[in-house]
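Could you show me just one protein sequence together with its fold in token form as a worked example?
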Amino acid sequence: MVEAPLPVAARRGVVTLFLCGDVMLGRGVDQILEHPGDPVLREDWIRDARAYVELAEAACGPIPTPVAPAWPWGEALRVLREDAPDVRIVNLETSVTCSDAFAPGKAVHYRMHPANLPALTVARPDVCVLANNHVLDFGRSGLLETLDALRVAGLRSAGAGRNAEEAYAPAVCPVADGARLLVFALGTMSSGIPPSWAATAEQAGVAYVAEPTERAAAAAAGRVRQLRRPGDIAVLSVHWGSNWGHHIPREQIRFAHTLVEGGVDVVHGHSSHHPRAIEVYRDRLILYGCGDFIDDYEGISGYEQYRDDLRLAYLVSLEAETGRLMDLRMTTLQARRMRLEPAAEEDRTWMAATLARSSPGVTVLAEPDGALHAGPDTGPQGR
């Protein structure tokens, strides 16, 4: 449901979105909740999901299992309560199923027990994006169970469905004075989605793009124009790219620019395990990679230079009538004991400097309250 009463949003002329990257409430996170599913895994090195709990505890201290549904979100719930965004959008990177039908040929499978769905609904997401490389980890039966579980919980989804028409259709959220926010979603091969997962006219699956070409972006923008009405705001959420590194491939930049040129107001990118570049193009926001938000990755070593323990909550304020970016505030959080906690000042400073360095044309500043503020660079080098 929309958090703010519609007349308030209409009066202030601003629509504020909460965006984040991957919300993975399966595997180890599922095991610390009240109704853990079967912990059996088929990974090369770890065969029991409870081992991820042990890794997190070894890194940051004991976890008081079972935890309440709010535990994984931690400080993020305070951010949501205080900032009161009109629409909350998350990438739900797990299947919600009891199925044991492990998808063949995959190294990693994520599932959360349907009885643990309160760990998602506690954050009251308005849209759960499903166009990602884990929603079919337990086959099409697991996807259908996920769709049913979200529907019963009253949660909108985008990017996957019982057929192509449903998968490519936007989630529709009323925001102000009869206007709507439309959330479209796509998943690409580069994020690890197999072509066989694509939804067809007769088969459940994800809204799929093999490559982020300009032609594919133009087709996606065409769907947006076909469905949007005057006053609507359009978000396109895309799961793409590698897990690590700050380099943004040219094809992703062209894809995002073509979307904006075709009528998309916000490009919400995810799949990378850490935040990537921000761009403001034609007064529209492009987030190339929001980074992980909730997961069970603590204690896994090898990529410490990217500080994937630091997570960002994005608060995006748009002009209601045009979709133009008015403000971007980000709150830096830290994952500890599978819970989001406030980040220390030095960590917030590191995040601000890293984002600024990887985002040409964008200024990132730390505010007195600890939040980060980003906007177009208005100096000589700005665009």
Residues 6-376 form a domain with the Purple Acid Phosphatase; chain A, domain 2 fold (CATH 3.60.21.10). The first helix runs from residue 6 to 12.
